[in-house]
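Design request, tokens follow.
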């Protein structure tokens, strides 16, 4: 037998002895991995770079605008008066406008008229007091763009320095107050002596600012008609909140004491007022509307029971008297009571719409208040009718 025949027989015998495994292999389930194609590097043309740059810039501008809106508009600022000039200006201005409520040469805060539902709101008895504060808040609240306190040299030879205030009333009239003063330091305090002038009126002004930054009362100012009739205001602010306490003294008796907290929202100065009166605790949140032509009040009054509600404050013009008055529309939250009242408005300016003191009374005609000029040293206070 030849060798090739022998090899053939051996191969045939070996193939017969191999196990039949190939038929059992699932060839259709075997995954065949193809060779991955190499990644193509992006080609940065000038046009593509410009598109990416503009898109990134627009995204950045959008985020910056959104963050600015959130931080400076929507988030309240509880320390809106930033400079010493603004703080002194606010203290003296607000105290002066409250002092006018007890000045016997001014018109009283009696209501001109009122209408109520059969169920009378608990807040109705406080409209006189609210009216005094509204005369003050009309001037001191509003848009940051419409309120300015400016420190400058005095045009009064008796005083070295002046702070002037410029604002706008609800009737659109321009309002201007001036605080003339001399200042010196004494015993760790900066002492101020001067006068406040508004239209034909002039009031004595004095105050002091503590040079100790840890002092609880940072500053105190007192605006007076005389030693028995005055308004005193303390700056009791903290690092977190700007708060002022007021004490209104008439004929040597405290007629009203309150706390006012200031803050700005959407660049508009607002106030929160709290005080106690005849066993009742009252809280008000007051702000001007966007058009600066009206005031809105949210109130809470508690005397065993609590009532909440809103008061819309606008102006009513009397053509016969040629004056503006305040109109109060009261609505309690439960809807069970509402009322409409009118309160007298102080004259704010000599411009159109400025003579808003209210209708004349017999006492006003006798005093001829519009032609009288309040000067320091007038020691005939008479008796006002604040509360």
């Amino acid at each position: 037998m030849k060798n090739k025949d022998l090899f053939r027989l051996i191969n045939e015998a070996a193939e017969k002895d191999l196990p039949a495994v190939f038929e059992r292999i699932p060839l259709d389930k075997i995954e065949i991995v193809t060779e991955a194609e190499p990644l193509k590097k992006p080609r940065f043309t000038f046009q593509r770079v410009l598109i990416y740059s503009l898109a990134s810039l627009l995204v950045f501008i959008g985020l910056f605008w959104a963050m600015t809106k959130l931080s400076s508009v929507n988030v309240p600022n509880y320390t809106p008066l930033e400079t010493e000039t603004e703080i002194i200006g606010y203290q003296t201005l607000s105290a002066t406008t409250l002092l006018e409520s007890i000045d016997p040469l001014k018109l009283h805060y009696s209501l001109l008229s009122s209408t109520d539902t059969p169920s009378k709101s608990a807040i109705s008895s406080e409209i006189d007091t609210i009216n005094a504060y509204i005369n003050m808040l009309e001037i001191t609240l509003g848009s940051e763009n419409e309120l300015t306190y400016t420190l400058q040299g005095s045009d009064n030879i008796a005083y070295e320095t002046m702070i002037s205030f410029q604002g706008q009333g609800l009737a659109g009239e321009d309002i201007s107050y001036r605080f003339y003063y001399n200042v010196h330091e004494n015993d760790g305090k900066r002492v101020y002596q001067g006068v406040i002038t508004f239209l034909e009126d002039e009031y004595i002004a004095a105050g002091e600012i503590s040079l100790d930054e840890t002092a609880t009362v940072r500053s105190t100012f007192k605006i007076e008609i005389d030693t028995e009739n005055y308004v005193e205001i303390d700056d009791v602010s903290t690092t977190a909140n700007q708060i002022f306490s007021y004490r209104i003294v008439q004929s040597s008796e405290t007629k009203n004491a309150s706390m006012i907290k200031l803050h700005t929202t959407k660049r508009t100065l607002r106030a929160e007022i709290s005080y106690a009166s005849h066993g009742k605790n009252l809280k008000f949140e007051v702000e001007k509307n966007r058009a600066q032509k009206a005031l809105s009040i949210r109130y809470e009054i508690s005397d065993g029971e609590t009532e909440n509600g809103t008061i819309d404050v606008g102006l009513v013009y009397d053509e016969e008297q040629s004056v503006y008055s305040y109109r109060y529309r009261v609505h309690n939250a439960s809807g069970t009571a509402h009322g409409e009242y009118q309160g007298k408005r102080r004259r704010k300016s000599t411009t159109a719409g400025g003579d808003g003191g209210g209708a004349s009374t017999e006492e006003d005609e006798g005093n001829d208040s519009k032609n009288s000029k309040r000067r320091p040293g007038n020691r005939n206070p008479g008796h006002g009718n604040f509360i």
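Comment from the thread starter after seeing the answer: thanks! The chain is about 20% helix and 40% strand.
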